[in-house]
Design a protein that fits this description.
The chain has 245 residues and is mainly α. It has one domain. It has helices at 3-28, 37-53, 55-71, 77-122, 127-137, 139-148, 154-163, 168-191, 193-199, 205-208, 211-244. It is globular. The N and C termini lie far apart (60 Å). 33% of the residues are buried.
């Protein structure tokens, strides 16, 4: 392998390797297990005290942790969104959460696009290229819908977007706007955790979330999908009319 090819290989797969190493370290050291409601309840008073004394510093640390968590695909984004509301209130927490989620998602998107996108796209008759052409026509609407509905895994959407080489500007805008509702909803729930923790009652995800929380967000996702579906239906009607003639 020549020096030039080695450098090209490192540029292509180096970021992916770095993320995998960080993931292994996080799992091996038990850091992943600390992203839990139990940890937040145990450390809540200390964290709120630090946030009150150093709000800007705390917010910066929080966003960095959120970006890192999403980048290495640890299952802690929801806990971090709740933590944002717990530390910074529903507005500040929602803003910090959507910033961290968008930043971490963008890292995964760029890494996947760099490492695998071109390779899969160059394969003869690649399915990815055909799917990509159809998706890109309404990339913003489709991606916005996926972001609005929490049922779609964050990692899956990030990886798929990178493989299909969605334009970075479209990806950032749709991701940021699409994650705003859920981020602020979760931050709003998190802002009330202090009262629940003070009561001493056990707290679980099941007790915090109900259909009243998820259904409005899912409905917003369905509404975002209507424009591209309408355009698709119109194109089909035009094509069918042309065939009849």
């Amino acid at each position: 392998m020549t020096p030039d090819s080695t450098l090209a290989w490192l540029r292509r797969f180096g970021p992916l390797g770095a993320l995998l190493i960080l993931l292994v370290v996080a799992l091996a050291t038990g850091l992943a297990g600390k992203l839990s409601l139990e940890t937040l309840q145990a450390q809540g008073m200390a964290l709120q005290g630090f946030a009150a004394a150093h709000p800007l510093k705390c917010a910066m640390i929080y966003v960095v942790i959120y970006v890192a968590t999403v980048s290495i695909s640890l299952p802690g984004a929801l806990i971090l969104s709740l933590t944002g509301g717990f530390l910074f209130g529903p507005i500040g927490g929602g803003a910090a959460a959507v910033t961290g989620a968008t930043g971490g998602s963008t890292v995964v998107y760029l890494v996947c696009r760099t490492a695998f996108g071109d390779f899969l796209r160059r394969k003869p008759g690649a399915l990815l290229s055909r799917v990509e052409e159809g998706f890109k026509t309404n990339a913003f609407s489709y991606l916005l819908t996926l972001r609005l509905i929490p049922a779609f895994p964050l990692l899956l959407v990030n990886v798929a977007s990178g493989l299909m080489n969605i334009p970075l500007r479209t990806y950032l805008l749709a991701s940021f706007l699409g994650m705003i509702p859920s981020s602020f909803v979760y931050a709003g729930i998190g802002s009330g955790l202090g009262h629940i923790f003070a009561s001493g009652e056990p707290v679980t995800m099941h007790s915090l979330f109900s259909p009243r929380v998820y259904l409005p967000i899912v409905a917003m996702g369905a509404l975002a999908l209507l424009p591209p579906l309408w355009r698709y239906w119109r194109r089909r009607r035009v094509a069918e009319a042309a065939d009849v003639k």
